[in-house]
Amino acid sequence: MCFGYSFAQNNLLDFPQWNVGPAGSGYTTGYSISGTSAENSLEEGPDPYGGTSVLWKASPDDTDALNGGFYTSSVTIDGSKTYRFSIWLKKTGTQTGKSYFGLHARDGSDVKNTLNFDNSVNTNPYFWADDLPTLDEWYLVVAFIHEDGYVGSTNHSDTGVYAADGTKMGGITITDFKFSPTSVKLQLRAYLNYDTVLSDNQFFYSPAIHEINGQEPTIQELIDPSGGNATSLWTENGGNIHYDGGNVGIGTNANPNFMLAVDGKIIAEEVRVELSGNWPDYVFEKGYDLPTLDEIKKHIEEKGHLPNIPSTKEVKANGIELGEMNRLLLEKIEELTLYILSQERKLEKLNHHLNQYKGLEQRIKQLELNSVQSPE
Question: What one-character DSSP code corresponds to residue 73?
Fold first, then answer.
């Protein structure tokens, strides 16, 4: 069972859109590999939270210094604000090689312009490049890029490496950076380099960039999402999963009043809509006030649409309610059925009268014929 968590502020990176398979297009949208394809893969494994998730695995092939990992596509940022970078890392095998965690800030022309605290440009900035404290353990690495107006020379107090139990590890050097006044983009980088042991592996999980605005998850929430203000998206209960509270937005956060809002296409074999109101079989009940065709004609001429059906303007402004629209359409179909039945009865009467007229016509013709044939 895979689990995910949501926070008041969204991760700027496209995670957890990772799929089991080779690292690359179609499996890791928004991520590009470091090293060779053979050194990068995605597989399910134990995540830092005790569940099972898709992990990025770097496996050295001893062909060069780059042994796996990734860099993300650029995300748009506001250089007057501070952003936090974080990622979970785990190394297995040996401590050969180094784990790298870095970034790139860029201007509108894609020129690298990350600044050190002394305002010098750093074209290859790494927050941290070293060994993790212990093999076979998950660690959360956290660092910051400060706003372009930052005049300090010290890291953010949350910068550091954290064990899965929340302990902040000592004796580890991490470097924060700052934006240039022309910075408008950010990238995250995470690699395994200089590892020559073919049996070694490094795992990457949950890379994130969060704007520091009071809505970002706390360090404790990153370490233990289920224990803080984060919300567990899925709760396992007898094989079923459900979302307990709040609303869900997929590709959007602009519709807070709907239980589910999707900005995109949906495909399903079946969609079932159950209404709390009456289904329109009331049209067939005695006493239903069926408008006359003249009334319908007048309404269409004045309004441009059928009675009870929303206008084009209303649909553009409010969309349509699937269940309610189906109810209204069925109401019109049932009304149309009544009109057809009514017309059928009128046609039957007309046919009856027509047959009578035809019989009378035949009788008249016969009388005329008899009159001609009779001698005077």
Answer: P
CA distance 87 to 188: 10
Question: Which residues have a Cβ under 8 Å from the Cβ of 173 and sit 6 or more positions away?
Answer: 128, 130
Helices (H), the chain: 219-223, 293-303, 312-318, 322-373
DSSP 160-224: EEEETTSPBPSS-----EE--TT--EEEEEEEEES---TT-EEEEEEEEEEE-SS-SPPHHHHH-
Gap between the Cα atoms of 358 and 342, Å rounded: 24
- Whether 67 and 95 have beta carbons less than 8 Å apart is answered as no
Residue ranges of the domains in the chain? 5-233, 268-376
Beta-ladder partners of 203: 57, 90
| pLDDT tens string 121-157 | 999 999 999 999 999 999 999 999 999 999 999 999 9
Is the model's pLDDT at 251 over the cut of 80? no
Phi and psi of 111, rounded to 5°? -80, 135
Half-sphere exposure of 285 (CA within 13 A, CB side): 9
CA-wise closest residue to 230 among 24, 5, 4: 5
What's the rounded mean pLDDT across residues 331-342? 88
Q: Residue 18: its pLDDT value, please? A: 79
- In DSSP terms, 168 is beta-bridged to 162
Q: Which amino acid is at 26?
A: G
Report the distance separating Cα 161 and Cα 167, nearest Å: 8
CATH number of the domain located at residue range(s) 5-233 in this protein: 2.60.120.260
Is pTM beyond 0.70 here? no
Query: From CA 224, how far away is CA 45, in angstroms rounded?
Result: 18
Q: How far is CA 232 from CA 139, 195, 245, 290, in A?
A: 21, 36, 10, 52
Q: How far apart are CA 54 and CA 31, in angstroms?
A: 14
Burial tier of 114 (Cβ tally within 10 Å: 0-12, 13-18, 19+) = buried
In total, the chain counts a number of residues equal to: 376
Do you find a cis peptide bond into 16, omega within 30 degrees of 0?
A: yes
Pair of tokens at residue 12: 């700027």
- Mention every residue, 6+ apart, whose C-beta is less than 8 A from residue 54: 2, 16, 18, 19, 20, 42, 43, 44
